[in-house]
Structure formats: C-alpha cells, structure tokens
Design a protein that fits this description.
The protein is mostly helical. It contains 22 helices and two strands. Helix 11 packs antiparallel against helix 12, helix 15 runs antiparallel to helix 16 and helix 18 runs antiparallel to helix 19.
C-alpha cells in the first residue's frame, strides 16, 4: 500500500524533543553558569589565567546576594548586587564580571531571559580578565538562553565560540547546533551537526538517546531523504520499539514501494500490541489480503473491531466478509455480509451475498439477497444479479418467476448492448420453456 508520508512534522513536537534531548541550564551561580550534562565536554588545557583577585568587599556582597537567592528573596538579592554595581569604578574587571554574573542569574530566576542574556554578555566581554570556567559556562548559557528567546543567530554565535574554546567537545553542543539550524530551516547544516553529534557519541561510547535519533529522523523527513529516514527508523524500532516508530516505518516502507517490508513492520507492531488507530488495522489487513493471507487479515480486522478501533460500518464489514470468503469461511462470510448489507447505501453487498447463498444451496436467501441488491441499486452489472436470482428460482422449480428474472436480464443486457448476457439469458429462457413444457406433459400423462 503506497501511503504518502508528510515530510513536515509539528514544530512543537520537535521543540519539545530539542529541549528535553539536549542539556539545558541546571544551576547558575555567582561562580559561573554550570551546565550539567552526562558527557560534559572537556575544556582545552591552557595555562592558568592570571585574573585580578577578588576583594573581601565584593566577596561579601556576592555572599549576601547568594544568601538572599537561597531564600528566594530575589528583590533583596537584586538590591545587594545593584548597590555593589553602583560603585563598580572601585572594582577590577573580574569583580565587576562576577557581579554581573549574579545579576544575570537573578534575572534568570525571575524568567527575565532578555535581562539575563544582557548581563551574561557583559561577563564574557571581560575576556581573559575572568576565570576560564566562568567564561566558557557563560558562553554556553548565553547560547541556550538565546535559543529560548528565538534569537537563533546569537545561539549559533555563542555556541561556536564555546566549541572553539573546548577540547574534544561532546555530542551535546553539536546536537544543540542542529536544533538551532532546524529552527532556521537550514536543514543541510542541521543534518551535518546532528550526524556529527551522533558520530562523536558513538566514538566515545556515550548514550545516544531516543530523542537524538528522532531529531535526526525528523531532519531527514524535512529533506525527504527517504533512504536515511528508513535507516534511522530501523534503528529506533530496534532500540526503542514504540508504536509511533513502527507505524511511521511501515508508512515510509509503503511510500517507497517496499510493501512486503511494510506488511512485516505492521505485523510486528500488531504482535506487540502497538496498533491503535483504525488505519493501522485496515492497512495491515489490506496488505495481508494483497499478500494472499486472507485468514490472517480477518483476524486483524476482528481484533480491531473488538478493540473498538475499527468501526463496524459497511466498508469495514465488507472487507472482513471478503477475507472470510477468500479463507473459505463461508458461514462467517455470510454472517458478516448480512450485517454489512443492511448498513450499505447500495446493493453491492447483497449481490455478493446472493452468490454465496447460491454456492451454499440456500436458494430462498439467494432470491431475497438478489432482490435486495436490485432494490438498492448501484450495481455494476444489473443483468448479472438477474441471472443469479433466476438460477436460484430455477433450483426451487419456480419456473415462471425464474423466466421473468431471465427476461429482465435479457432486457437490461440489450439496453447495455451486452451481447454475451443476451445470449446467456436467452438460452436460459429457452431451457426454462422446454422444462416447463416437459413438466406439463409429465403432469398430463400422470393425470
């Protein structure tokens, strides 16, 4: 089944993956923004910076500010730091940067991200006058806060600066860059960074999360790189076997013409109990029918109906009836078609029932079904239904009404210029006339 997959995925869903799948600010204090990550990148080994020392006065101010922060008294904390910054001409650059760092942290705690970013930029502007740890963690913080503020250019700028100052950065910053490029709709660079991040994680033997693989898959979706979409989805179903991954993989298989693989993927999802939607069950049943496994298809449809995922409407019941019929489960097929026929807007299901009843020698029901089909209409070939009806009547020895049915067949066939059925119905009429005459002669002879 060729099912077209929409390449554009919900931006909101992606945003959630980004924020949960990449490290974010954990603790920000006057000693510097501290980014907590499983594979925290190692910093370049450089000569220890000689920075101006911290005076006792400033140290006490920062301590007082931290105490107020601990008490969640941000107003007091801000007053302490603002009072100190009002006298910043007395302090060296390291002291001023640390005061701005704490004010940035207070703004962050108050959800004033724009104010926090402004303060943190003042911190990194001090350059080599502040400790390396404070500079690098603040750079990372600016990048991520800029992302939250949707200032993607600054997010890229400060993360790239951070990477330039780190030794063998982990996968985290690359994955972060991928998220930023995704938001800028620069999918080529997003993929480049995401692939690099995953490569780094693989080389280091560090964990690659489900969110990481999902993001890469989403990026391939956006680029319509279907071979790569399949490759990453195959990884996802192996490592994180969930409904959404199996169903999406099946959909892409179908889109790309791999119907056998599509069927196997949906079968795996069905076996694992992952099928939930009506389309999940009906798509799998259709593929099984196409693969000539009708009995299995019937089981899938019944399971979907029991789960109340697949509605018992005329269309779905007709599919179930066809599966039963092809499985030689005639009684089950008849029961289902009878239910479907009552719900159908046309006579097509009644027509199918009439054939089943004829094959099962249920001639009374055959006549009823054929009559129902003719009454409801919408048939592809009306003359065919007249033939079935006539045959069932003939088998009941109702020769007069059987002849009427075949006469109706011939009339419709003539109107449709259907010479084959004109001939067949004409032959039946001749045969019935002879049989009627024969039976009349037998009756007269016996009388």
């Amino acid at each position: 089944m060729n099912i077209r997959i929409k390449p554009s995925l919900a931006a909101l869903a992606v945003a959630v993956l980004l924020l949960t799948g990449t490290p974010f600010m954990a603790e920000l204090g006057y000693q510097g923004a501290s980014l907590q990550a499983e594979d925290a990148p190692a910093k370049k080994k450089q000569k220890t910076r000689r920075v101006p020392s911290m005076s006792e006065t400033v140290y006490k101010k920062l301590g007082a500010g931290q105490e107020a922060i601990d008490l969640k008294d941000y107003v007091t904390a801000l007053e302490v730091i603002n009072d100190a910054l009002a006298r910043q001409k007395r302090y060296n650059q390291n002291e001023v940067a640390n005061l701005h760092n704490m004010r940035g942290y207070i703004y962050y705690l108050q959800d004033n991200y724009a104010g926090a970013i402004n303060e943190y930029k003042r911190v990194v502007a001090a350059g080599d006058k502040i400790p390396e740890g404070l500079e690098t963690t603040t750079l990372y913080t600016i990048a991520q806060l800029s992302y939250v503020q949707e200032n993607y250019d600054d997010a890229l700028k400060y993360m790239e600066i951070w990477i330039s100052k780190a030794l063998n950065p982990s996968s985290a910053p690359r994955i972060f860059l991928a998220t930023v490029y995704y938001q800028k709709k620069d999918y080529d660079r997003a993929v480049e960074q995401m692939e690099l991040g995953i490569q780094i994680a693989q080389e280091r033997g560090t964990k690659i999360t489900e969110q990481n693989w999902s993001l890469l898959t989403f990026l391939y979706f956006e680029k319509e790189a279907w071979t790569k979409v399949i490759a990453t989805l195959e990884i996802l179903v192996e490592l994180f076997p969930k409904r959404e991954h199996w169903v999406r993989l099946a959909g892409v298989y179908g889109q790309e013409g791999f119907e056998k693989k599509q069927m196997y993927a949906l079968e795996a999802a069905y076996t694992a109990g992952f099928l939930e939607k009506s389309s999940d069950f009906t798509n799998l049943a259709g593929l099984l029918m196409q693969d000539e496994v009708p009995f299995r298809a019937s089981k899938v449809l019944v399971a979907g109906m029991k789960a109340e995922a697949v509605e018992r409407n005329a269309k779905n019941l007709r599919s179930l009836g066809q599966a039963y019929q092809l499985s030689q489960e005639v009684d089950d097929a008849i029961d289902v078609f009878e239910e479907a026929a009552k719900l159908s807007d046309d006579g097509k299901i009644y027509e199918r029932l009439s054939y089943l009843y004829l094959e099962d020698d249920q001639f009374d029901r055959c006549v009823e079904a054929a009559s129902g089909a003719l009454d409801k209409g919408g048939l592809r070939k009306v003359q065919s239904v007249h033939i079935v009806k006539g045959m069932c009547l003939f088998n009941q020895n109702k020769l007069k009404t059987a002849r009427t049915a075949f006469s109706s067949c011939r009339r419709v066939a003539r109107a449709d210029d259907d010479k084959a059925n004109q001939r067949i119905c004409g032959q039946w009429i001749t045969f019935i006339d002879r049989e009627s005459k024969r039976q009349a002669q037998l009756a007269a002879a016996s009388g």
